[in-house]
Amino acid sequence: VTCRPTKKQAEDYFHHCIVDQADWSAVDGILALKNISPQTVPIQEYLTQRSHYAQGMGGLPIIGDPDHSRHRLPISAKPGSPALRSRWSTISTNCRISLTR
Amino acid sequence: VHAPSPSSNARLAMHASNKLQIGLFGANCSSGRAVTLVPERWSGSWPDNKKLALLADQAGIDFMLPIGRWKGYGGTTDYQGTTLETVTWATGLLAVTKRITVFGTVHAPIFNPVVAAKEMVTADHVGEGRFGLNIVVGWNEGEFDMFGVEQRAHQERYDYAQEWIDVIKMIWSDREDFDFHGKYLTMKGIRGKPKPYGDTRPLIMNAGASATGQAFAVKNCDAFFLQASRTSLEESTQRVRRAKEAARAQGREIGLTPSAS
């Protein structure tokens, strides 16, 4: 979850961390362990996977302002889950989630 | 060969009545889940983990799930190269929190099950029933050699893990002084006291991605860690539905933990 006061701030910070300042040498190490390379998969697939693994080992990115993140979670939780009301607020460096169920 | 069941329901009722469980993944590892150079990346240190756990405990997060990692991925930051061992990490966090469930991620092939059962029961008593087991049957090849243990073929990993979890559950049940004769494990006079907290056993989770792994999870576990699609919510929905249907086909209801980064 990348949560900032505005959607643009969140997207900019995500791009800063996971694209401009990604540890690409580590990403390439992860891909090598999984035998994902331009020699083993189509180049577009390789680039997609490389971008994805910079975000970690999987999962659904949630990037946006508190309202976006709040609305994104219930949608993500849709399979078999009840409605979830969540309230997000930004604190000093990370996102804090307080939940009301 | 199973502990009194369905103890998981009792345990869920004890601590976690929310149908949708939200947790934090990988805080025990340096850099956490973001492969980044930014200086504010997650440290994975004990003080930061403790601070995070207290914040999560207060904020209503349901669980913390660590990654079992023994060697980092290299690169400029040695991504996930500094990690806290997960059962001791969980025990420490359970000691300072009040309501959150904390899992240990345990590699079956490298932990003697009698020792592991005792360690986990200890964590469970410290947390008064808030410990959970995330069982892992294999690991990265690069981590393998330093244990002097040869990684088995895929199916055999799960065959071994089946014996391992059977022994664990038997120790956690009301059995005393029993023998176990399996293909991989032969043990005599097994005894383990105390039993898990409150006459229930810890929640058990598994993240096997293959059909064999999923079958193992459905048979043995209370929760199945499922990779959420990075791009399509509908695809995640389908994955959840298929896993739940597979569990129901075996007469089981299983919780799903789709990951969000």
Provide structural commentary.
The complex is a heterodimer of chains A (101) and B (261). Chain A has 101 residues and is an alpha+beta fold. Chain A has 4 helices and 4 strands, in the order βαααβαββ. In chain A, the strands form 2 sheets. In chain A, strands 1-2 form a two-stranded parallel ribbon. A two-stranded antiparallel sheet of chain A has the order 3-4. The radius of gyration of chain A is 16 Å and the shape is elongated. Chain A starts with a strand and ends with a strand. Chain B is α/β, with parallel strands linked by helices and 261 residues long. Chain B contains 8 helices and 9 strands. In chain B, the strands form 2 sheets. A 7-stranded parallel sheet of chain B has the order 1-2-3-4-7-8-9. In chain B, strands 5-6 form a two-stranded antiparallel sheet. Chain B starts with 6 loop residues before the first helix and ends with a strand. The relative contact order of chain B is 0.13. At the A-B interface, helix 1, helix 2, helix 4 and strand 4 of A face helix 8 of B.
Order of helices and strands of chain A: EHHHEHEE
Number of helices of chain A: 4
- What is the molecular shape of chain B? globular
Strand order in the largest sheet of chain A: 1-2
Rounded Rg of chain B: 18 Å
Percentage of residues in strands of chain A: 15-25%
What global shape of chain A is seen? elongated
SS summary, helix count of chain B = 8
Structural class from helices and strands of chain B? alpha/beta
**Structural class, from helix and strand content of chain A?**
alpha+beta
Task: Give the averaged pLDDT of chain B, no decimals.
Answer: 87
Oligomeric status = heterodimer
